[in-house]
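Lab notebook, bench 4. The sequencing result for the construct came back, and we need a structural model before the next group meeting so we can plan mutations. Quick request posted to the team channel:

Model the 3D structure of this chain.
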Amino acid sequence: MNKRTQKLRALMKQNMLKAKDVAQITGRSITTVRIWRCKSSERIIPEHTLRLLEHEVAARKGGAA
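Done. Here's the predicted structure in token form:
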């Protein structure tokens, strides 16, 4: 599994985020988020989108990424 996919899955699990939540934060569709989470998918979350998600999750917690 790609490292960014692993980070996405871990971030979602640790913060109890659903595909719908990630879609809203990143401005992508729920289907796209679900594809990003797939272990065998060739479509991987872009680095800049993962950074945006990490930053937004940290901001919601009151911290910085």
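Residues 3-61 form one domain.
Will bring this to the meeting.
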